[in-house]
Amino acid sequence: MSRTSFNQDWRVRPKVSQFAQLQGGADEGAPVTLPHDAILALPRSADAVSGGRAAYFPGGAFEYRKTFDVPEDWRGKRVSVEFQGVYRDAMVYVNGTFAGQRPSGYSPFTVALDPFLRYGEPNTIRVDARAHDDSRWYSGAGIYRDVTLIVTELVHLGAVRISTPDIDAERAVVEVATAVTNESVDTQTVRIRTELRGPDGAVVARDSAPLTLRAGASGLARQRLYLAAPALWSVEAPNLHLAHTVLEDIVDVLDETTTTFGIRSLQLDPTHGLRINGESVKIRGACIHSDNGPLGAATIARAEERRVELLKDAGFNAIRSSHNPLSRAMLDACDRLGMLVMDETFDTWTEGKSSFDYSLAFPEWWERDVEALVANDYNHPSVIFYSIGNEIFETGDALGSEWGRALAEKVRSLDNTRFVTNAVNPFVSVLSDVLGMMQANVSAPADGGVNAMMNVADFMGQLSAAPMVTERTEASFSVLDVAGLNYGEARYELDREQFPNRVIVGTETYPPRIAHNWRLVRENSHVLGDFTWTGWDYLGEVGVGRIRYADAPLEFEAPFPWLTAQVGDIDITGHRRPISHYREIVFGLRAQPYISVLRPENHGRQVIPGMWGWSDSIASWTWDVRSGTPIAVEVYSDADEIELLLNGRLVGRSAPGASKQFVAEFDLAYEPGELVAVGYRDGAEVGRSVLRSAEGPARLTAVADRAVLHADDTELSYITIELQDEEGTVATARDVTIRVSVEGPGVLQALASARPDTEERFDAPECTTFDGRALAIVRPTGAGQISVTVESDGLDAVVLRLEAIEVDEPAPASGVPLLARG
């Protein structure tokens, strides 16, 4: 089997009908390398059809074209192309003839090319995609995930599925199920040889099995192999094995493939919760959307890997895909780095949430999309949950719950080695009843939709625990292995009594409530853990997490030019926000206190609490205000007492928890210098942290996360740009316009700050820093030296040297080298 990247040499343009082309004026389109987001380069506007939900980007219809050579020696072989994701309603044409389609924007699918090919000459492939008011968040559009060209013999391998059903300290049983298809006109007898290699590359088991297939038939070879003293996969030790599968006849190797897998066991019960390899694990989870911030929807492999790296560094051990299947690149990264996964199917079933969303295709396509999800996930040890939906209206309806049963049983028929859940929002499940209740009892913003109503936390808690919800959702929960609850923590202890066999996970929770929720997780063994909304800020649903003030308009959706939700532990550039460090302390993963300072320009303003927002603060003691200006400071800590010192003088002592758990609050007068927080427990110091004011002139700095890159379409170099003083303190109070240029075999893929309300474009060569920071992303286009120059008026320019090397050379990298990406 030949599998090669099909990401190069595409062109994209707005969709143009053949009738329109008769009138002339249609260009050939812009050259692009996949993955690519066609929406990101379009102008944003306040009157965009999807509004703030899609970050004020427009919709559109697009066509991608590629010309490729088909050699004569492909004649008599099977040729296909695998799309890992096209958003959405993809239509595929080969040499002008329809060849395949996929309504879902998130499902992998394969299109056979050989019926349409012209051998020994150039061929064309065209992919049409469109997005139009079909999502509740920014989805992007186009061929935004990888594409692979596959060439096989007529007798060839299909899927290789690996499971580890029986594990103990002495040995592990590895079951390998290999599909083989005979598309020749003769009966064929073949042999499947399988070789397993351990994490160190050594061969640990071998087996072979014969298989005879009639013409046109497919068959499954099952092999049961035994490994002594297996190296198990876990979050702490993500050991991976390789299975090398060879298909051969009497004289020739017909096909071969390599599959990565992990050996681990899963157990579930209300007493021990989730156990991995016999050890109970509490889930410290992050919901994430599919976009990559400045890259838009494009799921370039390094971008996916970096997100997993930074989320794990921030204390998370699990991610929930919200609300669609993850990319293969991210699943690979989760396997390598040790991150648990809840992979989710759909945001809608038969009842839509947007005008033209997936509900229009669900009745006809749901089974094929579930099959695609499971096929994509089966060999990934990181995947432990399949979620069959998110906040589905039908979960509160007796007949609607039949869909949940059908989905759950379909998943189990394909994979019974993992747990099935559903992210049920009690509020949404009984929304038809709630609408009347809300109008009668609660004043909610009229233009905020469901999210605005959910902002009333006390009401949400009361509703979640109401008998009406208990009765209406029981059927939907009964079909699941794990009851997923969105904003339903009021049910955790209630369900322990009412449903003693129910195991729960918080599939979506309010970020500021993590201290309360984590206590419930720790104290209740039947509650597996918590997935916060969200681990990473995202495009669309603009301003859902912003801080609002009583003297400003109270619209739920932020106005144009807002761009991001401004919710999440990590901003769109990858910088950790204060809530992230607070969460780390709540999890018990950080001993040192963390100082966060509220922006002084808002001192004294009355805050309107938002359920997804934290405080409008940053870790800085550099402010462009006069000395003596009143300023508020938060110190996050699990210590008994916090002592705050300013330039060596005692400001005060405070016990964390007076108004917020794990938070000590101080009001003081601003004075440049050094701010120190010291934590005490039982009278003894347990940790301290320091903030210093930036002094003197600022200088530009630029640091690449990797200076040596592979010269392929999976790679990126992330360059953190900061304004710093001579001691390395970030000058957060001074923002400047920066320009970035790239020379050599590379391009500036994106340039951005984390400013949530900006009209600046991600594809422009300049941007304004935010709190003294920005991010440049460089993508190699070939092998050689790449020069990146960062400059700003009045400051010395910074020049970075990157090197892109061919993939058969070793490349140092953060995390796991790209060569190991499988």
UniProtKB/TrEMBL annotation:
Residue ranges of domain Glycosyl hydrolases family 2 sugar binding in the record: 63-150
- Domain Glycoside hydrolase family 2 immunoglobulin-like beta-sandwich as annotated: residue spans: 160-264
Keyword Hydrolase: yes or no? yes
Residues in the signal sequence: none
Q: Where is the Glycoside hydrolase family domain?
A: 700-797
Q: Name one Pfam family in it.
A: DUF4982
Keyword vocabulary terms for this entry: Glycosidase, Hydrolase
Spell out the molecular function terms from Gene Ontology: hydrolase activity, hydrolyzing O-glycosyl compounds
Q: Which GO terms describe its biological process?
A: carbohydrate metabolic process
Look up the domain of life of the source.
Answer: Bacteria
Q: Where is the DUF4982 domain?
A: 628-686
What the entry lists under InterPro entries is as follows:
Beta-gal/glucu_dom_sf, DUF4982, Galactose-bd-like_sf, GH, GH2_Domain-Containing, Glyco_hydro2_dom5, Glyco_hydro_2, Glyco_hydro_2_cat
Q: Where is the Glycoside hydrolase family 2 catalytic domain?
A: 274-440
Concerning its family, UniProt says: Belongs to the glycosyl hydrolase 2 family.
Q: What is this protein called?
A: DUF4982 domain-containing protein
Lineage, opening ranks: Bacteria, Bacillati, Actinomycetota, Actinomycetes, Micrococcales
